[in-house]
Automatic annotation (TrEMBL):
Gene3D superfamilies: 3.40.50.2300
Stretches assigned to the Response regulatory domain: 5-131
InterPro entries: CheY-like_superfamily (IPR011006), Sig_transdc_resp-reg_receiver (IPR001789)
Protein name: Response regulatory domain-containing protein
Species for this entry: marine sediment metagenome
GO biological process, one term: phosphorelay signal transduction system
Amino acid sequence: MDEPLLYIIDDDLISIFDIKIRLHQSSYKHRTKSFDNTSAAFNMLASDYRHIDGVPDIIMVNFDLEGMDGLAFLINLEKNGLLSDKTHVYIFSIYGVPEHMKKADGHRLIKGWFTKPISNRDIENIFSNYFNQGNSGQLRAM
């Protein structure tokens, strides 16, 4: 399997930096693009530039973004045909309240959710889940 393309979408630049460090510490090879808002990520996927790298294999998006939150972003991508059925989406939030995440539960592309800060173990689980597609269930971490 090729190196997966991973999108990180969060308005907290420190969080993006932390996730990138954890990704770098991972044993899995990958390509990463980061965005500080959902509009920038949506515009990238809606533009012709998406053909350079393709559709992301894994999207990690903050649920708590201003404007178009993580779930609205996902619905908008899907509505416009900008995601693959094989794309794995992971939602994360600074709030670890399960009721807060229930909006996202049950969506076919969402493979799991995490509470910030994301750990090295979370990153390993995301890659493991991606590379073993169909062999593992949804990830839930608190």
